Amino acid sequence: MGNARHHRNAGNGFDVSDATPVDSTATRSKLELHLPIATSVWPMLSGAAFHGPAGDFVRAIDPHTEADPMALLIQTLTVFGSAVGRGPHFRVEGDKHHTNLFAILVGRTAKGRKGSSWGRVLEILSAADSAWADGRVVSGLSSGEGLIWAVRDPLYNGEDELIDPGVSDKRLMVVESEFATTLRVLRRETNTLSPIIRSGWDTGKLRTLTKNSPAVATDAHISIIGHITRDELLRHLDGNEMANGFANRFLWVCVKRSKCLPEGGKLDESTLFSFSSLIRKALNVAKEIGEMHRSEGARALWRDVYGELSDDNRPGLFGAVTSRAEAQVTRLSSIYALLDGSPVIEIQHLQAALAAWKYCEDSCRYIFGDSLGHRLADRIHEAIRTERAGLTRSDISALLGHNVSAQAIAGALGVLVEHRLISCETITTKGRPIERWHAVTKETKKAAANGVGEVRP
Q: Which of 106, 240, 442, 445 has the fewest CB atoms within 10 Å around its CB?
């Protein structure tokens, strides 16, 4: 590994460009990703997310940069959470949630100004914590063993003699400007990077079962920031990484160029100094904090939103990548509180975290659309959605060129029914009944609730 206000311009969204399907040569049990049925609604960021020093920093720098405000905000929260280290945590039953975040900025091209947003954030944190910036910011995610080595414990030989002192500073901020390269690495059959990254988010206890790699790491505090285009993401994110929980440990953030500044920005040096001093003070306080908890007001709000956050009925790829909502909001709210120098998550910290998460959630909806990750089911769903009169099985077979078996079509229809995306209308005739498949809409949902129509594969 090597060293490495709220402004929105209309018409600056992504074009829905073609994505190359992931080839699955191993097994059909793998999810298959392809271009989703995308939503055209670009996510909007609530002002509540701009709470505290992080929000003040974004507002101050926004007139002087072409970077997306959310790119600045999420990276500020991520690097602060990284620099804080392993001390502050929020306990949920037997689990401890620390302040390490994984965040991926998703743009269409380099015009998303993903790199310029990182440069601004690093500038502030470098002045606030030079030891972190000089020694713990790296790039080059290539293997699980390499990641462990960067945060390894001391190594001893069989006679209990020290052969390597290990790494004393367990903080590690990994920045991947070409996250597509990392995703390609994950697809190598023997690569151990995916499970190690997942363990880094979960517990910080890292090890492999490889005989020739004895290094282990405990209390590792790994944070990740990655930059990728939407097209690359859809092409390289393997279905297994959707299913095994790799993807839902990341915050996926849509970003775009916020404005055009032909001569660049001219942020006053005194402003940078002021914010770096503020961040330094917040870091010094945060590093002395241990277990965190919510105030009574925040607990009441948490009870109100918990049901929606923990909803496990979200369909398809969108559901897969947003299924750790409660944990992500908990970590975000902890960081907002620590930036305010508080060991207590107040209602305003939780509100800010919910606003930031809502943007991430809407980004996932924009990126992944209505795709289930099941190629045949997605093709059939798209065809049914565009045909108001619905389609019979014969219609579906014809649209597929009569090249797909009736059994495969039945299985795909079953997947769509399971996710409540289609319904079956059975029409009585003098001969065999005709079944016609329709996309589920608000009207058909209401009809189903009243017992009208039949839903079955």
A: 442
